[in-house]
Amino acid sequence: MPRQGLNRDAVVRAAANLIEEKGPAAFSMAALAKFLHVRTASLYNHVDSLQDLYTQVGLLAIRQMVDAEEQAISGKYREDALTALAEAYRAFARDHYHLYRMILAAPKQENPVLEEASFAIVRPIHQVLEEFGVRGAQAVHWQRLLRSFMHGFAAHEIAGGFSHVPLGRDESYRIALEWIAAGLRAAAEEGNHACQNNGSYR
Amino acid sequence: MPRQGLNRDAVVRAAANLIEEKGPAAFSMAALAKFLHVRTASLYNHVDSLQDLYTQVGLLAIRQMVDAEEQAISGKYREDALTALAEAYRAFARDHYHLYRMILAAPKQENPVLEEASFAIVRPIHQVLEEFGVRGAQAVHWQRLLRSFMHGFAAHEIAGGFSHVPLGRDESYRIALEWIAAGLRAAAEEGNHACQNNGSYR
DNA sequence: ATCATAAAACTAATATAATTAGTTTTTAGG
DNA sequence: CCTAAAAACTAATTATATTAGTTTTATGAT
Question: Which of A73, A192, B32, B72 could serve as A81's disulfide partner, Cβ 3.0–4.6 Å?
Fold first, then answer.
């Protein structure tokens, strides 16, 4: 048994690759073990359980996604940053869609690690909103709108839910983002001279 | 063996109930069989496979959701209809969130049945857009925006992704819908006196 | 160099899952 | 009342995750 030199990280990365390549349906401890030229039981030296492995893969996916987002917006501002962010989000979901699913597929109970990591996904979004001058409570509301839209669009695109009509999805995405950008400008404007009615937004 | 009087429909409904109650993790052919006071193998008289069962449960969920949407908007118009539709969508996802997941969890390959049924989910949305006077290509784009937002919001809410900040999610939802309504009014307006530039939207 | 120890692999076994084949029982219609 | 299809059953197969206990390999201290 020539030692394989595995560790937790290598196992998680291999799992992510395998899931991304063949899909989660084809994934199993046995499949991963075969891929790594190791017996199934050996994986438990590095990983607590299949659930644990899934959690780790989810964390990895989140980190990759946040990286992509931050890279996309670096050096860009306002509308450009918004477009770049949204395009990066969509591209990641499209190109790594098995991984993308695992991010939100994690059960909401427990998993404080994943909870915290998914917090990181919001940071680039808030940065863009900040540039638009949208702050405070408004920033929370608009972050939710933007994130919901991006995720929903990606989810439908992945599931093939937009394919009935051949009309360009790129076009749909662009139009939606333009309207959201207009909303951000309006919200920033409103936020500027709104000091007396601080409690009621809009 | 006092015959249980099962049929395809009863099995599917029981599966849906069981999944909704205990979650998909606790679901299995064995669990369903026990619930129905039947041996596991007997289920295969009514259902081809676990996959088949999942597909059927997904179809059932879609039907229930469309019903809820149509009931919500009946007798309402424009902004009222939009609000009612969105609220019904969100409520369904919240109250039946295990079922809601199965709607989009279906693999995009095969499953023409489910593909067709999910088409029905769009109909109520288009009806609302029609009332706003949004038609043609615009209707497709705005339907995608609205549907993406509703799904994304529901998905994040279900996953607990909005809970970090205690700021009201109801408020966020309301604000977003108001902005979308404004967009629909603008799109309808633009659509009315746009006859020469038919090809480029916005 | 050697050797003790912890980690990393292994073998073997258990429990549970989905699924299929083949058999018996029930029930509804002629 | 009897027959044939449907609905239940038993039993077996294959695959899964997981655990216990064992052997091997590196590595770091002597």
Answer: A73
Domain covering B75-198 in this structure, CATH number: 1.10.357.10
Which nucleotides in chain C lie less than 7 Å from some protein C-beta? 7-13, 16-22, 25-27
Span CA (A30) to C1' (D17), Å: 9
Residue A161 burial (CB < 10 Å; 0-12/13-18/19+)? buried
Q: What is the pLDDT of residue B199?
A: 39
pLDDT at residue B184 above 70?
Answer: yes
Q: Which residue has the tokens 């369903």?
A: B32
Q: Are B184 and B117 in contact (CB under 8 A)?
A: no
Helix (H, G, I), strand (E, B) or coil at A190: helix
Q: Are A135 and A192 in contact (CB under 8 A)?
A: no
User: Is residue B152 within 8 Å of residue A145, measured between CB atoms?
Assistant: no
B30, two tokens: 């064995």
Q: Is B194 on the interface with A (CB under 8 A)?
A: no
- Regions of chain A with pLDDT less than 50: 195-202
Q: Domain spans of chain A? A: 75-198
> By the 8 A CB rule, do B160 and B151 touch?
no
